[in-house]
Amino acid sequence: MSNVASKVAVIGSGRTVCASILAKTGISVTIFESARGPGGRMSQRREIAEDGRELLFDHGAPYFSLNASSSEVQSLVNDWESRGLVAEWKAKFGSFDCGAKKFLKIEEKGVIKKYVGLPGMNSICRALCHESGVESRFGLGIGRLEWLDNDDSWSLMSLDGQELGKFKGVVASDKNVFSSRFTNVTGRPPPIDLNVVSDVAFKLKEIPVISCFALMLAFEQPLSSIPVKGFSFKNSEVLSWAYCDSSKPGRSTTTERWVLYSTAEYAERIIAQTGLQKPSSAVLTEVAEELFHEFQGTGLDISQPFFKKAHRWGSAFPASSITREEKCFWDTKKRLAICGDFCVSPNVEGAICSGIAAASQFTEMLSSL
């Protein structure tokens, strides 16, 4: 392939699977990520306790599992496992009834394989971002994507007006190029003129999302009254899930760390009061207190943590999947792929499947140029 034909921009490090596959076929890939590091919902949070101790939390996706029929995804995961990027999380999981204040069921280890990144959930994206043929540019949000008819290419501009170059194709997600949520957060119009890609834009206009808060907790001693390492909450209007982050393979066990997730209803109520802009420290402190109070209200023996902090996921979790068979949106003429978990299934496996599909569209088309 010529240099012109093989340049593809990938917007958001959540699409690193697609970027990695493209690079392996000889396509030159540049990833643009607005955050300081890779991962998105698979990122790992680094916090410092008051006494100076470093604490790491997987505060987004706690793990991922696979559908037995997804042979392509299984092959990728097998490769990651052989490279030491992922491992199976062999722990007991269950569900807890807050009304009856008891565990309803406890699932035995390994019934459904659960995989985690090593040493954090972001290890996969981090490794793929630095593979041969992939250039990664962090802390660089995209403010404008312009299709140049005369040049048959895309021109990219950063949020601060920096010209980022021309690319033969673009891979992105809905929220970083189309959604009004981009406007709600940045105060700017979406990067793409929706009239330029009207067919795709119509299908993608406002994919429903689920918001939630994550509460990161660190304890000096294990919470020994809890017989599982992850469980869902029944009959709670505030909490939906809890996971013992420090029980995952490859994690430090000098402290016990848990991550709790709110219900969507609770998050929606808070967002209705505070808006989609970045929440203030006061709001997050209040949310942390409310989530922890609900955790203590289970009747389990929950000691006081030495670290407690909340994080808001405003629009990270899709409420539905809209292209199950195609697995991604593809504009052949303009070589634009829109992929993500919202295309296949609202989880990590869905995002991987969609990334594979987007890469397939590009390699098939660019190889014929």
From TrEMBL:
Gene3D superfamilies: 3.90.660.10, FAD/NAD(P)-binding domain. It comes from the Eukaryota. InterPro entries: FAD/NAD-bd_sf (IPR036188). This is Protoporphyrinogen oxidase. It comes from Olea europaea subsp. europaea. The lineage of its organism: Eukaryota, Viridiplantae, Streptophyta, Embryophyta, Tracheophyta.
